[in-house]
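Handout, tutorial session.
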Amino acid sequence: MKILIKLLNMASLNRVTLIGRLGKDPEIRTFSEGVKKASFSIATSEKYRDKNGELKEETQWHNIVAFRMLADRSESYLKKGMQVYIEGKLTSRSYTDKDGVEKRITEIVANNLMILEKRDTSETTEQHTIKEEPPLPEYNDLVADDLPF
């Protein structure tokens, strides 16, 4: 226990984990060195009951940036409305907008991105049937010759 306390006193942690839906398709920028950057936002929602017992939903928007391979993956696969899992670190930066006003933005720089739903590979809005796997046999239905050992 003393070692853990000592480690906690010496280290810090900046880690964010989110599951949410994309608010829009990713915006892709390619820098002169060939490095890509994907920018997009995701929404997370929390439901709760207020003091009157009414069900409320609060939505938070999070700015996400992804670089290099994750930017390529974002460009190829992510679309507005998709549910994604994001791991990364929280960063803040300042910039000057086109009107000369200094702005501050907080972003999550992704280091892991996972799509949490099946991708529709069609270019049209047709519905596709997903082939289900046949059910596994019941234990009692197996015979000795079916066992792998």
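The second record follows below. Compare its token runs with those of the first.
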Amino acid sequence: MSSPAWAPAGSDGRYQYETAALVVFWPQAQHEAVIVRWPQLVEHLGASWDEHRQRTERDCAFINREGLAVNQMAGDTDDFAAFLARRGATRPDKDDLHAYPDLRDATAEMVAWPPDRTAPCWCGSRRKYKQCCRPHGLGTLH
């Protein structure tokens, strides 16, 4: 990667490529299950579902402002537990959250962010994005 021709996005004349960041979000039931099972993760995931959605939305917006595409993937408690077992982690921490999922065997669907304002929200609420997580990312919870 030290080559002067390397860039995080572009084309080499044969292939158009782009760097994208992956943001894992925890659907409400999964967020609650993760916090019950591993309470020390509250600091990193948020204590409530609203706090988690707000953090996720802000993270996505920050990454996007830095010029990277953002893909989101829903976290799953059982999958996370299996991931931790493969790593030999008994008390997960921030580093485990950042390493999850193991993309070598991830099968979950990834969704591009941001959704269109009138599209269903990424969080699974079935509300329009403009009425759900978009305002949460801007800091207004209602």
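Points raised in discussion: Residues 21-137 form one domain.
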